[in-house]
Structures are given as structure tokens and as C-alpha cells.
Amino acid sequence: MPSGFAGTVAAAQRMDNPARAPILRGMDTDIIIVGGSLNGTGLALALAQGGFRVAMIDALPKATRKAKTFDGRSYALALASKRLLEAVGVWETVAPDAQPMLEIKVTDGRAGEAPSPLMMHFDHAEIEEGPMGFMVEDRNLRRAFLDAVEAEPKITHLAKETVVAQEVSDTGVSVTLASGKTLTATLLVGADGRRSGTAERAGIKRNVTEYGQTALVCAIKHEKPHGGVAHQYFMPPGPLAILPLTGDRSSIVWSETSARAAEINALDDDSYLDVLRPRFGNFLGEISLTGDRYTYPLNLTTAQSFIADRIALVGDAAQGMHPIAGQGLNAGLRDVAALAEVLTLARRRGQDIGSPITLEEYQRWRRFDRTMLGLATDTFNRLFSNDNTVLRIGRDLGMGLINAVPRLRRSFIREAAGLTGDLPKLLQGKRV
Amino acid sequence: MTQMQNTVDASEVAKFEAMAAEWWDPNGKFKPLHMLNPCRLDYITSQIAVEFDRDLDDEAPFAGLRILDIGCGGGLLSEPMARLGATVVGADAAEGNIPVAKVHAVQSGLEIDYRHTTAEALAEAGEQFDVVLNMEVVEHVADPLAYVTACQMLLKPGGLHLCSTLNRNPKSFMVAIIGAEHVMRWLPKGTHEWSKFITPDELFDLLTKAGLDPVDRKGFVFNPVGWTWSLSDRDLSVNYVTASVKP
Fold it and tell me: Treating both helix axes as pointing N-terminal to C-terminal, what angle do B144-153 and B200-209 enclose, rounded to 10 degrees?
């Protein structure tokens, strides 16, 4: 062996267990992604585009992911996120069923009273980039992402599989699946949600803040058209959002104290609507439910580290947040775009994509943004979800002020469109 | 070598592994080098890709290329070159670096030929390479012209020589000596001797005298806000890199 003494000795130590330190080219794949939801599939597509071989492990069967019926869930996709969808080639499929958000109206309200006259009004006409975002139904996104994954030869999709063990070595990581299969790769990415098993197995702890509130989510059909306007009401029990879907339909997200939410959720559809109706008046005319109803306990759960040896976390696995501003998926896609960019550039430079050098670059990039977002969401919620007179006057004045100053207003619009901060290339609509 | 192999004991290997970990710790002793490395690698990889018509998105874009990394240290440049498919020889005049780099290459699953030798000795032995990486070395040698000439001799005709160093002017004195060594303590005091720094024109002159055709030069510019380095066409005031080709 031409490589000198130290190399030979060190190699010999590992030779008795070749599985522990397989040579680089012998890996089953480059990157294993745990999680087959939107962040997982989005990352798989972005990485395949960067030249990586990817294995995606999804606990759910394909049929569930591709279910066609409307289940009531939808997302407010920021403009920047839409650009990522364009870059990975799924926007075209999603676009016909996406509802542009042309205006956002924010109102401080008190149930049963007329909304405060001081409110914020954001119109996309004030920025040149186009609509601030799009309302997209979960079913359409899921199917579009999965179809693109299936059409990509660099991605191996392992559906109905779960990880039971993961082991990290100097050169790579190996996971064992419930079916008994094992897979090796250079990097493991946890896109497995706020209770991320990948993070837990890596010993990454989480900071959890409970808000004692629960979000109620449903979709409604209404008599009058919404005109592409999204409404956000801030009311003492918590915020209420009315987000426009295609046709005369809207997605409703409202928060209540957890006890009250449980009571409301136990009601039948008619009584449920009776509770909902007075919250936003009758500007949409008669309303009826479509799809299922959902509840989500509100909490902020942040992984203490977004990386570990040969492991990175994206989406809710990194930070699951309060859905107050609908930023969950958008923040997740920012993780996806940043990680894909860092890894693709590292690969072109010949750097080890699973090394701390590479992964710290990702963590540095996302941590600041995530911390600020978590903090902002938290403050926002505490500030608006109460009936304290001083706070109420303060926030009304604040909203009036923001609304009165065009520059301030435009910066809010850009923030809502996801166009602020150090944007990864994929979110600028560029390829890495 | 064979004899050393038999006499080396486990504690020695552990020591080398610890030193390798130090070399490769992004927040450790070699942090400044790690901060600079993405920028250096961007330049190196793109120059090689252009010169030898390779696509960096390919599986092993540098396959078939023989690359020499002079002053390889812990292998911060050698390993990426090997990972891109090149056949790599890493040379260092500091004997202690060689086993450290070897230990890490094994950990990385890469095959790299690390040797305790100099450019002059390799040239004398008639070794030939497609690319010679000569990064942050020339400001440390006693006779730069003899050294760069040896680098030229090591290249095959059409081969590429990439050389980075520090400019000599009041700013580089402030930044590289006062800033990096005394204020930030990024580098041990005495790492650099300012009088040995070389201006870009002097280096171009040196390269030409050594029989190379200089084809490109860029600055490495530090951005103190983002703590990152970037390449600049115009700002060569402190760190800079050159590409030259053997006719």
C-alpha cells in the first residue's frame, strides 16, 4: 500500500468492520431524507437538481399523499416560495389551482363589535414583484411534488417505511428501516416534523413554548366573491384569518384558548358555523363548510441545534411554529433552499457535504432568520391575543402608523411576500 | 516507511487523529483557513474546469487529472481535489503534517499520496502534474524564483499553476500582520514576514521569469459583516490569487 504508515494503521483499525467506514463511492446514495411531506419532497427535488442521488423515506403510503379529495387544508405560499416551486419544476402543475393574494387587510377587532377603523391594508400593486403570495390547497401541492419526485431518476422514494435506527461514522451515516433494510449515505436530513425522530436519535433537544391556544382550521364556501383579499383579524382569544381559495371558497384559521377550542370542535357542523359566523360578519354572505375540520395546538418548538454529525434538520424538525402568520411552510422552504444551495456549492468545490464545515454554513444561514421569526411570531401573538386596553390602543396606533407610511407599508408587503433577508438563490427564482 | 509502520503505536495514531481533528475543526485553530477555503476552492475548481474543459456538475469532474498540492498541511485542498476525482499528491515541508493529513484522508475515505518533500525535490525526481496548487506558500520561501521555477518544471505542457499570496503595501501590513496576528490572533505572531510579501506585478514578473504565462488574477476580499470571503476582480490589496499556464 503506497499510503504511508499512519494511513495503513488507521485503515487497519477499521478494516475488521468495513460497514462502519465504507469508502465514499460505495455509499448507497448521497443523501437520505427522512420525511415525505412538502419540505422533504421539495428538498429531494432541489438536491437532485444539484446533482445528488437522494433516497426519501416516507412513513405514509403513496396513495395517501396523492389523495384527490379536498381535505380542507391549504397553505399561504409566499412569493419567494412560489419561486422555489418554479425552480424545481412543480409550479406549472400547481398554478391553475392557486389563488393569488392581491391584498391583505389586517384589523384589530373585538368579537361582536365593528372592527377598529385603524387597520393595515397591503396591496400587491405597491410592489413590482406581483401578488404577495398564493393560496394553494394541500392536496394539489402534495400531488405535484410527488409526481415530480417520481419523474426524477436521481430520487429513490421509499414509501410506507420508517427509520428505526441511525448510526453515524467518520465518513457517513447508516439508517435501518422498519422493513429491515439498511441504507448508507454521506448525509442524513430530518424533514420529519416537530416530533422529529431524526433529531431525537441524534440527541438534539428541543425548546418548547406552549401558548395554551389551539388553532381551528376549516374551509368554507361563501356566497359573495372574496376578490383575492386575505383578512387577518386580531381578536382577544386569538387571531382569525380568512384566506382566499379558488372559486368562492376561503380557508379559515382561528385560534381560541385550548379549552374553548375543544368545545367548539366537538360541535356539529351547523353549530360550528354558528360560532364562526359572527367573528367576521357577513361580508362574504352565507357560508357553509367544505372539507374536514382540523385543530392544531399552538406551540413553538425549536431544535437546540439544526445540525449534528452528518445530520441536518429542515422545516418543522428545525422549528415548528405558531401558524399565526402562515409562515410554517414558507420558513421550511427557506431551509430547503438554503440547504440545497450550501450542499450543491460544497459538492462543486469537492468539500465533504456531511462535514461540520459545510453544515455549519447552513446552520449559520438559517439560525438567525429562524430565531427572529420565532421571536416575532411569539411577540405578535402575545401583543394581539388579549384585550388589555393599553395594548389595544397601542397596537391600533401602531397599525395606523404602519398603514400611513408608504415605505413602512411596502416593507411589510415585502416581508409577507418572503422577499426580505439573505435569500437563497432558489427563492430568487435562480438556479444554484 | 515499512519500518515506521511497525514501530508506530496506538498512542501515536491517537495523537495524529487529535491533530487532524484540530486541522479540520471549522471553529478551531485553523478557522481563518476554513473561512477562506470556500472562496479558494471556488477559484481553484473553476480555473481547473475551464482549463481542462470539465463540468463541475459531473460525477467525478477531475478524473484523469494529476494534481500536486504544495504545502498541503492537513489536506484542506488535497481532499476536495481527490473527492472531485483527481489523483492527488500532497507535499509538505513540515514533516509533522504528513501523518495528520494521512489519518484524515482515511477517515474521509479518500486515497491521497501525502509526502514529506519539497517542490524542488519533486522536480528533481522528474514528477509531472496537470495542476500545481501553490497556495499561501511563496511568501514563506527563501528564494521565490527558484521555487516558482521548480513549480513550472513540475507541470506538463499546458499545465495549470495556481498561486496565491499576500500583497505588500501598508494595508496588507495592517490587515495581515497587525489585524490577523496581533488583534484577532487568528494566526500565531510571526506567521508572516511582511517584507516577504509580493505585489501582484512582482509575482507576474516572477511567474514569467520562471517560464509560465500568467492568465488571470483575482483578489480574496474579506467581508467583516458576513464574516465571509469573496473573489474580487479589482481588489488585490491583501490576499490574491493568480493562474498561469505552462506553454
Answer: 50
The more confidently predicted of residues B9 and B19 is B19
In the chain, the amino acid numbered A262 is: A
pLDDT at B204 over 70: yes
Are A3 and B112 within 8 A, CB to CB? Answer: yes
Of B1, B42, B107, the CB nearest to A4: B1
Distance CA A48, CA A190 (A): 17
Residue A408 pLDDT exceeds 70: no
Contact A351 B103 (CB under 8 A): no
For the domain made up of B2-245, the CATH class stated in words is alpha beta
Which stretch of DSSP H or E encloses residue B108?
none
Long-range contacts of A263-267 (CB under 8 A, 24+ apart): A264/A216, A265/A216, A265/A293, A265/A295
Q: Is the pLDDT of residue A20 over 60?
A: no
CA distance A349 to B41: 6
Tell me the mean pLDDT in the region A170-183. 94
Distance separating alpha carbons of residues A175 and A178, to the nearest angstrom: 10
Whether residue A386 has pLDDT greater than 50: yes
Q: Say if residue B95's pLDDT is above 50.
A: yes
Cα–Cα dist A22/A11, whole Å: 11
8 A C-beta contact, residue B80 and residue A349? yes
- DSSP bridge partners of A106: A120, A232
ipTM of the complex as predicted: 0.87
Indicate yes or no: CB of A351 within 8 angstroms of CB of B38.
yes
The overall pTM is greater than 0.90: no
Which residue ranges form the domains of chain A, and what is each CATH number? 16-428 (3.50.50.60)
